[in-house]
Every structure is written in C-alpha cells, then in structure tokens.
Design goal:
Elements: E1 3-14, E2 17-28, E3 32-36, H1 43-49, E4 61-64, E5 67-68, H2 77-82, E6 84-87, H3 99-109, H4 115-128, H5 144-156, E7 162-166, H6 174-189, E8 193-198, H7 201-206, E9 210-215, E10 218-220
Parallel strand pairs: 3-8, 3-9, 6-7, 7-8
Antiparallel strand pairs: 1-2, 1-4, 4-5, 9-10
C-alpha cells in the first residue's frame, strides 16, 4: 500500500509565527484519518500545506502524492492539486448555476474537452454521492447536506488519490453530518485516502478511525 502523505519533522508557520513544529506522520492509500484540535490549533494550516496553499517552513521531509513540498515550484502546484480533492465547510459553490453546471465548470477548467466524457463523469460522481436525481437544481434549492454532497462530488471529479475535508460537517445538523462522514468513510474503503479535520470528538468515537491531534503546537498520533 503506497504512502500518500509523508511528513517528518515539519514546521508550519503563519504570519511569522510557528503554528506547529516537528510534525511527523504518514497517511497511506485508502486510509481515513481525523485531524482534531481546538480552533487555532493549526488544523487548517496543516491541511493547507498538503495542497501547497501554505508553504512548509522547514522539515526533513514533506511529501504529498510524491511532490516535495519543501521545494515545490509554482508551476508544479496545479499538478499536485489535480490529485487532491478538497471539501470546504462553506461549500463554495457557484450560486448562479446548477449543481451539474458547477461540476462541468471544474472539469472544463482542468482541461476536459469531450462533452460526452464530461457528462459521463458528472453522472458518475453524482451517483457516487447519492445525488444523481438532483444535479439540475440550483444550490439555493438544495439543503445543506445536499450541497455538501455536491461539494464531495466536485472533489471526486478528477479521481483524486487524496481527499482533504476541512470541517465538512461544521454547518450541518448532527444527522446530516453523520451521513456525510459515512460517505467519506465509504470513499476511503474504496481506495481514496481521506483526512478530515473536525472538532466533533463524538464523531471520532461513533465512526472510529485513526486520530491525529493538534495541541500545544505539536501533532500527536
């Protein structure tokens, strides 16, 4: 089983302040991990380093999908991000177009040309998240849970090896949130590594998986 994330002795800085130091952990293909910690503990900053939105300050090794984050060039970042699906808490859907059009926009922006292949891929990801009958709806016509399923479908479009979900249940009621976590666990069981940031410790007990904890500027496994 291949290693998707490999951090050794990594330091994460924000605004000239050390957020996390000596971060060492690995995530393997198809593994599900929770990233927990209080607000401001560094969860989001650490997650952002994984797709080169926040630079790695220093470290013996910092690799994601084989890309060396300590020396990654700007022109390499889009290739890294094509292998990473990102799920945001606040959805970030385009409000002026349907769910299907949101997905089509992403595929066209990442180089897909064939209309048939685009339509087929959209149908596949909508079915994977249980939204195959609601792709025609506008975001405001969907519930919070349905919007989050569309966001997960968007994250799946380019067949990522890694999904990063930053508080994906934060704006959802508990029952809907649990449905989203079940979906993410299923995707991991099908081979996609998932790292999910959450402050909901009950969820980590109800849906057990490995827990990475940000606390006192350190990451404990």
């Amino acid at each position: 089983m291949s290693i998707i994330i490999d951090y050794r002795g990594v330091e994460v800085d924000r605004a000239e302040r050390t957020v996390l130091r000596d971060v060492t952990f690995q995530v393997s293909e198809g593994e599900f991990c929770y990233l927990v910690g209080r607000v401001g503990s560094g969860k989001s900053s650490l997650m952002k380093t994984m797709y080169a939105d926040v630079p790695v300050a220093s470290g013996e090794k910092a690799e994601v999908l084989g890309f060396d984050l300590t020396s990654i060039r700007k022109k390499q970042i889009p290739y890294l991000r094509r292998g990473v699906g990102i799920v945001f808490q606040d959805f970030q859907l385009l409000q002026d177009r349907s769910a299907m059009s949101n997905l089509r926009f992403v595929l066209e922006a990442t180089g897909w040309k064939s209309r048939v292949e685009i339509d087929d891929r959209i149908a596949e990801v909508l079915k994977a998240v249980g939204m195959d009958n609601k792709g025609y709806k506008m975001p405001h016509e969907l519930s919070g849970g349905e919007q989050q399923r569309i966001v997960i479908a968007r994250a799946l479009l380019n067949r990522p090896r890694l999904i990063l979900a930053d508080e994906p249940t934060g704006n959802l009621d508990p029952q809907t949130g649990y449905q989203i976590v079940k979906l993410l666990h299923r995707l991991a069981s099908e081979g996609t590594a998932v790292v999910m940031a959450t402050h909901n410790l009950q969820m980590t007990e109800d849906f057990p998986a490995r827990v990475l904890r940000c606390e006192d500027k350190c990451l404990t496994c």
